[in-house]
Amino acid sequence: MTAHAHRHELYTVDQVRALDRRAIEQLGIPGYELMQRAAAAALVCLRQHWPQARRTAVYCGPGNNGGDGFLLAALAREAGLHAEVFAPAESRGDDATRARREFEHGGGIVNAWNDAVVLPAVDVHVDALYGTGLQRALAADVAALVRRIHATGAPVLALDVPSGVNADTGDVPGEAVQADVTVTFIASKRGLYTGVAPGYVGAVQLESLGLPETLWQNAHGDAELMQPWTLPPRPRQSHKGNNGHVLAIGGDHGTAGAIRLCGEAALRGGAGLVSVATRAEHLIALNSARPELMAHDVNGPQALEALLPRATVLAVGPGLGQGAWGHALWLTALDAHLPMVLDADGLNLLAQEPRQLSVPAVMTPHPGEAARLLGCDTATIGADRFAAVRELARRYQAVVVLKGAGSLVADPEGRVAVCPWGNPGMATGGMGDLLTGIVAALLAQGCDAWQAATLGVSLHARAGDLAARHGGERGLIATDLLEPLRLLLNGRES
């Protein structure tokens, strides 16, 4: 592993515990020293983000996360900050108990917590209640404390993981701390980047605590965090035939917009040619709005079959519908043995008639579609998105994008990549149609299914962030992403 490559890897809680043990047992670094290093790193983080802060309240739980908090409070006091400590319970474990005693021996006072306690006015709250070990909902009294912290309106720094967030899955089974910044130690926990967790973690800052790179040798993470990249420049002699021909199939009655967005995204994604197989009623609108799209009246399988020999890649599903017309085109597309992207009703039809995909394929379900494909409910998908996306990829033998905050990409061998970009403004109609077209265009230009899915997801999310940066998140619409997409695909940020 190259130096610092582990910073792009995401680990399960068990894997992080194994790294802790390795640091203690093989590198000879005592657990208490790791706690001291974590506290020192947390104080540096606090002062970086809130340099004017003078008063802080630290909430310490019973375990090692609470121990980090006690030592942080002691360091803060030594640095001249006012630090008040609240502990809902007694400390447990040698290191956590030692940290609490050190804080008290230095003159610190530990305040018990109950509903009658009035929280102080502070510049920053520090959450050191529960770390990675908690995978259940917070107890009622701790949940009440969390609500009181939020009610003050002051910012929150979370140590390692916001209390109440499942660091393995990204699920939040009950109340949880909503942090402005989360400083996480030794390795990045996979659950901080997906599901509902991104709404709780704020900015995530990884601190490796000065540990040597040998700690991470042969200690591979469970997933990887996507990094920004794009395709290399095209050869000067390139022509449209070198860049693939996407055939977008869909747009039943009343859904011309979905297939147009897909087709236009395929064009902006760099495909040399894009054809659209759709209903006759949509041709005038498509030709008027985007003449670069080659729109065809396809009234059934025979008309679609005539277009297939010229296609490189199929994009199947936007506005397809689940009626007789959509079902017939879906079957014809699957039998064409061409690389494809399946989305929307292309996935819903697959849920009704399951089959493994024998061609290079990318599936792009949202949680509802994923639940139908796996025969479960959306709560099950949300409870462990990593398990869900892996099972989808295995069952259908395809690369799968599980959309949502922190979109996941998995292949049939179990590899998973997590997207750290995107914003709430993208929660609007048509965004999925764009992603289908982008991924199809990348397949058409020679990417394999994994490359097309990961690059497509990253470009789509980064384009959304760039569009939001220029105009704000609220009111963002799908077509706002097309020009930023073009910039990013060409290696430009603005």
Automatic annotation (TrEMBL):
Name by which UniProt lists this protein: Bifunctional NAD(P)H-hydrate repair enzyme
Q: Entry's PANTHER family?
A: ATP-DEPENDENT (S)-NAD(P)H-HYDRATE DEHYDRATASE, ATP-DEPENDENT (S)-NAD(P)H-HYDRATE DEHYDRATASE FAMILY MEMBER
Can you give the residue ranges of the YjeF N-terminal domain?
16-217
Question: What would be the name of the gene that encodes this protein?
Answer: nnrE
Residues that hold K(+) according to the record:
N65, D127, S163
Summarizing the function annotation, the protein's role is:
Catalyzes the dehydration of the S-form of NAD(P)HX at the expense of ADP, which is converted to AMP. Together with NAD(P)HX epimerase, which catalyzes the epimerization of the S- and R-forms, the enzyme allows the repair of both epimers of NAD(P)HX, a damaged form of NAD(P)H that is a result of enzymatic or heat-dependent hydration. Catalyzes the epimerization of the S- and R-forms of NAD(P)HX, a damaged form of NAD(P)H that is a result of enzymatic or heat-dependent hydration. This is a prerequisite for the S-specific NAD(P)H-hydrate dehydratase to allow the repair of both epimers of NAD(P)HX.
- What Enzyme Commission number(s) does the record list for this chain? 4.2.1.136, 5.1.99.6
Question: YjeF C-terminal domain spans which residues?
Answer: 223-492
Which cofactors are reported in the record for this sequence?
Answer: K(+); Mg(2+)
InterPro entries linked = CARKD (IPR000631), Nnr (IPR030677), Ribokinase-like (IPR029056), YjeF_N_dom (IPR004443), YjeF_N_dom_sf (IPR036652)
- Binding of (6S)-NADPHX occurs at 64-68, 131-137, 160, 258, 319, 366, 433
This enzyme catalyses: (6S)-NADHX + ADP = AMP + phosphate + NADH + H(+); (6R)-NADPHX = (6S)-NADPHX; (6R)-NADHX = (6S)-NADHX; (6S)-NADPHX + ADP = AMP + phosphate + NADPH + H(+)
- Protein family: Belongs to the NnrD/CARKD family.
* Swiss-Prot/TrEMBL keywords: ATP-binding, Isomerase, Lyase, Metal-binding, Multifunctional enzyme, NAD, NADP, Nucleotide-binding, Potassium
Q: How is the cofactor bound?
A: Binds 1 potassium ion per subunit.
Q: Name one Pfam family in it.
A: Carb_kinase
List GO molecular-function terms, semicolon-separated.
NAD(P)HX epimerase activity
UniProt subunit comment: Homotetramer.
Q: Where does AMP bind?
A: K403, G404, A405, G406, S407, G432
